[in-house]
Write a structure and sequence with these properties.
Order of helices and strands: HHHEEHEEHE
Oligomer: single chain
Radius of gyration: 17 Å
Strand content: over 45%
Low-confidence stretches: 6-14, 16-27, 146-155
Number of strands: 5
Mean pLDDT: 78
Number of helices: 5
Distance between the termini: 49 Å
Shape: globular
């Protein structure tokens, strides 16, 4: 009986903390100047870690940059971060990334991620959808060391390529999750 009570209490606390983070995060939204600076710095870090990413950027129609995503969970979890969409050197809008998850998980971490939109279809989808769920719409390939070694500018066939990097903290477990990217009205 005590185990069920502990699980219920942990679930309630995690849910309450995620709801409060969701309500507080927009109030502490980064300024456009800070977001631009952080996004540029994250992109440069990615290029140093994965030189292929810089070559990929030359073929991309646009780049979604999320310099700092914060993720936490205990049974229920979530992640939030803000970023920008760049077309060339022009900023085409500001976006947030919201993730919800459920399962055997515990911990907290932060990370950055960048999504290279490779064709007009993917870019149109981001512009026209009222919130873009990763896994629905354009085909997104998560690039890790193995995938990056096998990619070249002539083998790029998917709509979008995502790099996750600069992970800090510890998050462990197995969970089901979904991520939604939405335009921020500024």
């Amino acid at each position: 009986m005590m185990n069920i009570r502990s699980i219920f209490l942990a679930t309630a606390l995690a849910t309450a903390s995620m709801v409060s983070v969701g309500m507080i995060a927009p109030a502490y939204a980064a300024s456009e100047v800070d977001l631009n600076k952080d996004s540029d710095q994250a992109l440069q870090t990615l290029y140093k870690l994965h030189p292929f990413a810089e070559r990929l950027s030359h073929n991309a129609k646009a780049i979604l940059i999320f310099p700092n995503i914060v993720k936490a969970g205990l049974i229920f979890g979530g992640a939030y971060g803000e970023g920008e969409l760049k077309q060339g050197s022009k900023i085409d809008g500001y976006y947030n990334s919201v993730t919800a998850s459920w399962g055997f998980q515990a911990g907290a971490q932060s990370y950055s991620y960048v999504v290279f939109l490779m064709n007009n279809k993917a870019l149109r989808y981001v512009h026209k959808s009222h919130g873009w769920e990763i896994g629905v719409g354009p085909t997104v390939v998560i690039v890790d060391e193995g995938v990056a070694k096998n990619l070249s500018t002539s083998t790029l066939k998917d709509d979008a390529y995502a790099f996750i990097f600069s992970q800090q903290g510890l998050m462990g477990g197995v969970s089901l999750e979904g991520t939604k990217i939405s335009r921020i009205k500024r």
